[in-house]
């Protein structure tokens, strides 16, 4: 629904939009009839058997939704960003209705969106923390971990304007902003682990959405910090050396790579079979023709150095 609304907003052919609307409306029917499992106005998920995914949002790891103390949330779970997706779907359908002259449907969907926004800002907001809960658990308790998910609510415009500055401040705090991007989970949380899948790692696509949301609410400088951090992280490599150990199939021919980023510069790589050449290596960087030492080899080398 959101994608269809977006292309309609960009001026896509109205006839095509009208032809696709029945399918989009079925998606809204699903939200009403199946997505909101208990009729509380929020869309929840919960697996139907013990083989299904425990968590069914973008953070789909088994331990990805947890309280501030690290306790796992129990399903059915209503994620904050899922409510933002529903809000966006309502607004998209309302716009397409208005654009087609169907004022009654437009008004109905606008009212639904406004009610969802009101209830979301009441039930997910944690006034003593200054941020939104990542979810509501099976007992409708706010899951109070400080997580990146709320950034998606910025992107879709679900947050009240007066709450957005506190959320922006929290997202850019030392506990959330690593210097390379916004963490999936704040460093002070019980489940925090920077090497985890969803509990402290930094995801580029997550940060791109957060940056877009910050811009929507007027926090341009904060969005620029995130964008700069992602680009700097992308360009960061070990300056110790470049290891190449290719074995190309003869049938594939030679490989020629130009303008490849490397430690602030650009290099050219030519590979023919198992032979490599590199031009443009930054000063001080060494090309190693062969495999990077395996962990077992590094340990053995360390032992030999100690014995010597």
How would you summarize the topology of this molecule?
Elements: H1 2-9, H2 14-35, E1 78-79, H3 80-99, H4 103-123, E2 125-126, E3 131-132, E4 135-136, E5 142-143, H5 150-155, H6 164-171, H7 204-216, H8 220-235, E6 241-244, E7 255-262, E8 265-272, E9 275-279, E10 286-289, H9 295-307
Parallel strand pairs: 6-10
Antiparallel strand pairs: 1-4, 2-3, 4-5, 7-8, 8-9
Helix pairs in contact: 1-3, 2-3, 3-4, 7-8
Account of the 3D structure:
- InterPro entries: 6-hairpin_glycosidase_sf, 6hp_glycosidase-like_sf, MGH1-like_GH.
- Pfam families: MGH1-like_GH (PF22422).
- This is Glycogen debranching enzyme.
- The mean pLDDT is 92.
- Strand 7 and strand 8 form a beta hairpin.
- A 3-stranded antiparallel sheet has the order 1-4-5. Strands 7-8-9 form a 3-stranded antiparallel sheet, with no helix packed on it. A two-stranded antiparallel sheet has the order 2-3.
- It folds into 2 domains: 234 residues, Glycosyltransferase, CATH 1.50.10.10; 67 residues, no CATH class.
- By secondary structure, the protein is an alpha+beta fold.
- The chain is built from 9 helices and 10 strands.
| Main sheet overview | 3 strands, antiparallel
Number of domains: 2
Helix/strand/pairing category:
alpha+beta
CATH fold annotation of the largest domain: Glycosyltransferase
The CATH architecture assignment of the largest domain turns out to be Alpha/alpha barrel
Overall geometry: globular
Low-confidence stretches: none
Q: Write down the Rg.
A: 25 Å
Could you tell me the mean pLDDT?
A: 92
Tally of helical segments: 9
N- to C-terminal separation?
68 Å
Domain Mannosylglycerate hydrolase MGH1-like glycoside hydrolase: 56-241
InterPro entries: 6-hairpin_glycosidase_sf, 6hp_glycosidase-like_sf, MGH1-like_GH
Protein name: Glycogen debranching enzyme
Organism: Arthrobacter ginsengisoli
